Amino acid sequence: AGRCYTRPMPRFDAIFSDHCVLQRDAPIPVRGTGPEGADVVVRFAGQAVRATVQDGRWSAMLAPVPAGGPHALSVGRADAPAACVLTDVLVGEVFLAGGQSNMLFLLKDTEGFAEAAAAADAPMIRYYDVPHLPYEGAAWYEQREEFTFDAWKVCAPGTVGSFSAVAYHFARRVQAALGVPVGIVGCNQGGTSASCWMPEEDLASDPALRVYLDEYHGAIEAQGGLAASERYYDVFRRKMQDFREGRADGAPWEPPIGPRSFLRPCGLYGTMFRRVAPFAFRAVLWYQGESDVHHPDLYRALFERMIVRWRTDLGSPALPFLFVQLASYADGKPDGEAWALLREAQARVAAEVPDAWMALALDAGTSNELHPRCKEPVGDRLARVALRRLFGRDVEDSGPVPEAASAADGGRGVALRFAHCAGGLSVRGDDGKPSAATAATPVAGFAVRRADGSVAAVPARASGNQVVADLSDVPDAVELRYGFTNAFDPVLCNAEGLPAAPFRIPLPPPRG
């Protein structure tokens, strides 16, 4: 174990501990606390970097180091032996896993956990979980989900159950492909809007995004004001303490809205994310959006603003964001469009924001389960994106994407040509297995919107890299859609089994 003395000796912030993984081939920011005015020296991999403690804190920048280890990382006064020595520090690829409950979802709660754990003797994979602190000064029993301590965990059968399932499956594939250490920093919380993960000024300065603050303050007033919020929170706190200390069987889920709620806008930005920054990452992994379907029209702007903020705070203006498009979920209205609109907003972020890429998960969900228990496909899809976009590997990371539309069947239909389908399109059968579309194979899921706003399903057939939708029965169609509903079981995919994402495209206005 590493050796660290208590204050007033210099020490590292909690994210730097034994077994941590630091980003390879990039400047490495390190930081911590110490006695005011002290000159300190950080030593790592043959480097000795000096810093001075100001306002109780110090920071230093280490030069890039290639993948490898284990190393020792130490800090101490310039005129004394190292006061804090961390051991078993590796250098490799490091990713920040952010979002809400589907990113938080623990491996121990997934399908196939026993088999995954048995194969999890993987010391080159390490995991750090940022404690879920709802507000500054909260007691340990007020923290949500699993209470975690500030320490890196080495992947092993006995530890992997507390890893994010999506992040673990991602790390497993990336580490196997690259052969270098992989570190994951989990910074996520169930039920959270993207607005929870950004500072108040980012919302207040945007007239459209101010609605998140206005709704929050309106909810406090409807609850009876801040004084009432504090009273309600005291009740919540006692119930949570009874649960954590074994006097109650269940934990209260949602605290009353107010300054102590982990669901408030801008809260976890300060209590969780800012404990991470600055830190050197290869990329951010993001799985979130379920708690923002009530404002799908605002999500693109909200998410883009959050990306800019995280990139700024992490000191990397082009830091890649690899994010998951929401899976299928009925949300009580399987034919509704709120989730489809949110997925469309996510697709626009991928199309518009440089170095932001989207992994597909539509087929990884079920219509009646917000938290699908099979997370391996999602981790695999994110790993595909990383291997292709970040490391230049020859792997497919996308399902079929429409790239051109033209009239077909004498103007009675629309032909869509697809990219990302080398060897042609495939269609999943009733057994869930894809088969090559070679003879005008029927494809379910296509529909049109008429001029009056109504929606009707239309037949479609796939051959090669093309789908032809038959519009002969809907001459007033103004928009062609695929999978544009809350819940949808996709059948159109490529030879890799990756599904086409939902889409809608405008059609020429009807004549006559």
What does this structure look like?
- The chain has 512 residues and is of the alpha+beta class.
- The protein has 10 helices and 27 strands.
- It has helices at 101-104, 113-118, 165-178, 200-204, 211-223, 226-244, 267-271, 296-313, 338-352, 376-389, and strands at residues 3-4, 11-12, 21-23, 28-33, 39-44, 47-52, 57-62, 68-77, 84-99, 122-129, 153-155, 182-188, 283-287, 321-324, 356-359, 401-408, 413-419, 426-428, 434-436, 441-442, 446-450, 455-457, 460-463, 466-470, 477-482, 492-493, 503-506.
- The strands form 5 sheets. Strands 1, 3, 5, 6, 8, 9, 10, 11, 12, 13, 14 and 15 form a 12-stranded mixed sheet that branches. It has a 5-stranded antiparallel sheet with strand order 16-17-24-23-20, with no helix packed on it.
- Helix 8 links the parallel strand 13 and strand 14.
- It starts with a strand and ends in a 6-residue tail after the last strand.
- The relative contact order is 0.10.
Termini Cα gap: 80 Å
Integer average pLDDT: 94
Share of helix among residues?
10-25%
Low-confidence stretches: none
Structural class: alpha+beta
Shape: globular
- Overall radius of gyration: 25 Å
Number of DSSP helices? 10
Main sheet properties:
12 strands, mixed
How many beta-strand elements?
27
Provide the β-strand percentage band.
25-35%
